[in-house]
Amino acid sequence: MPLDFPLSASFSLAIVGSGGAGVITTGGLLLNAAARAGGYGLLTRSVGPQIRGGEAAALIRLSSRPVDCHNDSFDLVIALDWQNVQRFAAELPLGPGSLILAEETAGDVPAPLLVAGSRAIKIPMQKLAKGIPGGRPNMVALGLAAELIGLPEDGLATIVTHALAHKGSEAAGASLKAIAAGRTQAAGIDRGARTFALAATPSAREHWIVTGNEATGLGALRGGIRFVAAYPITPATEILEWMAPALPKVNGMLIQAEDELASINMVIGAAFGGTPAMTATSGPGLALMIESLGLAVASETPILVVDVMRNGPSTGIPTKSEQSDLNISVHGLHGDAPHLVLAPLSVADCLFTTQWAAHLSEKLQTPTIVLSDQFMGQARAIVDCPESAVFDETRAVPPPGIADYKRYALTAHGISPMALPGAPGCQYTADGLEHNERGTPSSQAEDHRAQLDKRLRKLTDHDYGAAWAEIDGNGDIAVVTWGSSTGPAREAVARARAQGHAVRLIAVRLIAPAQPARLAESLAGARHVLVVEQNHSGQFFHYLRGHGALPAEARSLHRPGPLPLRPGEILSALPLGGQPA
Amino acid sequence: MTALPAASLPAASRGAGDYKSKVKPIWCPGCGDFGVLTAITRALSDLGLPPEQIAVVSGIGCSSRIPAYLNAYGFHGVHGRALPVATGLKLSRPDMTVLVASGDGDGYSIGGNHFLHACRRNVDLTYIVMDNRVYGMTKGQPSPTTEPEWDSELAPGGTGLRAFNPLVIALAAGANFIARCFSGNPIETAQIIVEAVRTPGFSFVEILSPCITFRPDEHEWKKAVRQASVSETSDPSRAAKRLMTDDGFNVGILYRGDRTPYQPRLAPVPDALATMAREFAV
After folding, report:
1. What interface predicted TM-score (ipTM) does this complex get?
2. What fold is seen in the domain A466-573?
């Protein structure tokens, strides 16, 4: 994936309204129509914890190039109403030239949204919708947006007709009339400085429209996962809902467990039986699974745990994103319990990273935690079709008829062949008790030391290749980041380069085991290092520092969710000094 | 000379001893669990199962040490979680015969939620709980089945809590086979384990297994246990009345239903991963 992200024209809009007003549906239709027109884009939802009747916003960015983050401010806000908008006004940064189109009966634009230089225009969306039998205000809003960004009529009509097919032809017809009414209204609006016309970029690659959670599910299946046990939790549930009907088609299954303690232990049982297995959860569920993650370490059972992170601690803010589970993922297990922690770098990369993680688990007979997050998990993006990755890592099994089988044999690389139940003559007991090479429980010092050594050695001696991080450029300013912060960091780097600065980007995919030597190598020659992440305490920064992987003068840019990091925020933290190189 | 693995012997010539491993049990002299080990090996021999086709899954406690003492595949996990491990194994490997070993603390206290849902889910497992009404491995604390007045350092004068009735719970939650055994009668216990394994679905075998170290009073159990005076029933309401009114010492098969075991269905039409990915194409 090329990291050299050329600056592109993009357009950001938000459609807001109370829950049930249809803003999320509207946003989805707009994104689909943009995809059909050959554009790229990103749709995230801002919703409260209420299932019905709370606040909702569809946040959309459209571009002629792939985008992995939102921009610094919105060009356009369309408000069907202003109910509860104060709850997420901070998620709607506006600037000079921003245009607000608000339902005329909704009252005045709330003060937090009024910034210098923005303009507000009242539009009779409800009135226009009432004039059309079956017409709805959100479809008028869709027409407004479509006209302002130049979406072709035919493509949008096809998308809307297809989406409403289940409601009958009258519903689709009414929607198309409402869209037309919105387009007519928009034609008379002075667009001001923030204009945009969605243009298709000629691309050899097919485009996909996919969420990070869907990409995670597909990556897991491609990685060989055939058993999933899980407990519903926001924002991970969509992974399970995508996988539930998919698994039986590939000879697999998904079990809804009674709780997360059961989920992870079912997964351990399936993996012990030879079936690559995973669960998906979020922070609270991961916390419940920690004891059994230690069991998977000690018993050397390969399992995959996807944590779609949200704001913590405790129940925190379940519907919003944060990168604050790094500490528990890396350090949460009791005892010395080495395991793998990986983090995808974008919506599309959820596929690659999850697939790789599944193979690494099997090869290294270890639990692997994949740290996705609410932002990329629930974001729906138009991306280039991810390239197919092929991994040859699989589980080692003993040869048939092996004499004197030792499940936990002390091999040079630390990996011991793992007999599958059913293999004659290899009966052994997998154990969370410390054990000797045969698996017999042992409290002897030499057995403990030898097994600790082998469980560490198999991870540290493995050659993870180039996929451990994505590294771009060799400028003397280095941005080090991980997870979904890669999106805004990449864009900040591109902007700095456009200003003439030499900046490199290092986006780390393999979090644990830490790769201090590789990181030091990738930082060679950098005079300024900035570590960027979305949490309150700079967890990744301190983790890297603890491994001696950062130069003394490295700095940290970190702040908690729920507001996403924005490119301009990162750009302003770079030591550019107004002196382009 | 190395002995042949039991797997290579024909079924008829596999004795109970062929299902024992070489690992020496850590149990106290006189522990009831020795009788359970004998009963399980005898049952496996009677069933004629190749050792490699058997998996025994356990949690934590004296009872849960049993997989290591058997010549079979074993999984000794964390406290209370044996049932989910066994569920994942059996659902993904229906060819394996899966036994689950637990105790009253492991199975009814820390693992209580899994007990309910395992009964309800009715996966084809045999769940053997060695109930000694005490936490033995942590040296004598009250468990869910301990009598309310039993005195201990952790609960001086007794817990004052009503004892848990696992058989009634199992019936209410949907277990398909419910039996009570006494470890002092390993031959009868073996016969019941054979029936439990052969009955499809979730089979629950509660074995009274005395801990004479911390509960010397349990020496008296051998006098208290008796064969249930009524034959097994498939009627849940009759079974409920019987289980609610007995004194906890009637042994035998007390309930056997005909629920279909849970096994997720595969899709009628398989699909290729490449085809699935098409849903994302613009």
Report:
1. 0.96
2. Rossmann fold (3.40.50)
